[in-house]
From TrEMBL:
Pfam families: HMA (PF00403). It comes from Hymenobacter humi. The lineage of its organism: Bacteria, Pseudomonadati, Bacteroidota, Cytophagia, Cytophagales. This is Heavy-metal-associated domain-containing protein. It comes from the Bacteria. InterPro entries: HMA_dom, HMA_dom_sf.
Amino acid sequence: MKTLQFKTNINCGGCIKAVTPTLNQEAGAGNWQVDTANPDKILTISSDKLTLEQVVQAVENAGFKIQAA
């Protein structure tokens, strides 16, 4: 599995709840996490199938900002 990391504005439990359905669908439950304690709110995804572009598109579609870390 490859690990992808991104800076986001997913910064609270409500934000995580909002993006969970999208990320579970794209990456699978348990294959992603957001470090809200980190100032850059790092989203880490473990996947062999997802590309950087697919993750960015999914998170933006859920209403959040994202960029490669």
